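Q: Structure tokens for this one, please.
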Amino acid sequence: MDNFIFGIRPLLESLDSGQKPEKVLIQQGLTGDTFQQLFAKIRALKVPFQHVPSARLNKITNKNHQGVIAIMPVIEYHSLETLLPDIFESGETPLLVLLDGVTDVRNMGAIARTAECAGVHAMVLPEKGGAPVNADAVKASAGALSRIPVCKEENLLHAIAFLKECGIRLLALDDRGKTSLYDEDLTGPLAVIMGAEDKGVSAAVRKLSDTCVSIPMKGYIASLNVSVATGIVVFETQRQRTHQ
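A: Here is the predicted structure, written as tokens:
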């Protein structure tokens, strides 16, 4: 229960202190001046919220939740705009992993574990449309989500545009890519984009990418789990960088 805040005033105080919930559950039909103050702040800060029946809130806790339960982050998020200059200033060549629509918590956790092992500098996640970073994700990552910097971006397309402005090459991994991963030079500043388990990288993100590559395969199934595919890309990147 450490990542929940119950009640209107406790959540108001949390928001005033600069904490931002992952999501706020609000009891249907809730009214009152203090709640309206809270709701205005939630909307102003663009905090995701959902109106739910009181029974759902009661399933989460038997405490006096006053019709409001906030789900708080289980990790500390980083600012991409602050983190990227720090990577450059450290003298290292940036390597980031962006997740575009990966919705399975275990896949996301496994990707974080692989990324941390491969020395990836940060993971970039969308605020909406992706797997939640919750206790199950942290467990699936073997704790890597608490070690690797994670940036949660309200608009992934804007984040990609920012990375390009900073000299980061955007490489989308997708089975529709005509170029083999192994024919690409991965030694420069790079952000690897991994797409949804079922649809791959979205059309809008592919359009903004500098290149789209695929992993050559000989088997009948001809598809890989997204976490396995991520491992192939990031370790191929580190192999190239080690031998350049």
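A few notes: The mean pLDDT is 93. The domain at 80-242 is CATH 3.40.1280.10 (Alpha/beta knot).
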